[in-house]
Amino acid sequence: MRFVLMAGFLLLMTSPDVAAQGTPGKRCGTVGGCSSSPACDDQVVGAQCGGAKKCVASSENSIAACCKCQAPTTCTTNVIDPSTVEILVQSPLEGTQSIGVSIANNIDVSIPTYSPGTLDPIQVTATKIDRLKSARVELQVCSSTCMLCDPVVTLVARNAGKPETQTFSQVPETENKVTIFNGSPGLKSLVIVVNDSTFRVADLEDQEHRTIDISWAIVAGSQSVITLKAAGKPGQSATVLIHD
Known about the structure:
With 244 residues, this protein is an all-beta fold. Helices cover 0% and strands 46% of the residues.
């Protein structure tokens, strides 16, 4: 998840690194010398092992196809206003060991004090410095593995003259939803182009929140390109969040 903000924010998140998968049919908790969780015992590699956790292969102790139960680290983003977002970071099984800021352009990032290994959510606040300029933030969150937390939030405005167009490249496949937080006065419509597919969001109301599923147009990896184009009278705007 990089954070890209163009006169606002654009938010996104990539998947954590995972060790090589075990052979099909291999069961967790049955290989000597490997650590595992009781919740994973007798579970097929890749199968669900309870809640949001999944049974994954581990190369711990240099023995391939060892298994353990792992819950994914999550980054949930909330838009506070056009210049501020809150990112809720949590690793509910293994605990969050560290949160680092890898990119912070035109933005202040506030990370609260926390105990390494905590299972509790950690609320990170990101606030633009100059509201009229672009901004970008990217967090690196680590538990047993590390992931990039890069939600994309942007302020899309309909100014005088030619409608504004914003383009974001290298969007990961996990960022498969677009949520519009319409302003007041807000946009009347928004055109979203995902790679070669076009989504036309019409009849928006002031202060409306609307989410569009763009998953079928996203390509694998981090190769997608998303373009936003506002429509309506000059002076109208909306905060747009690209997220998982």
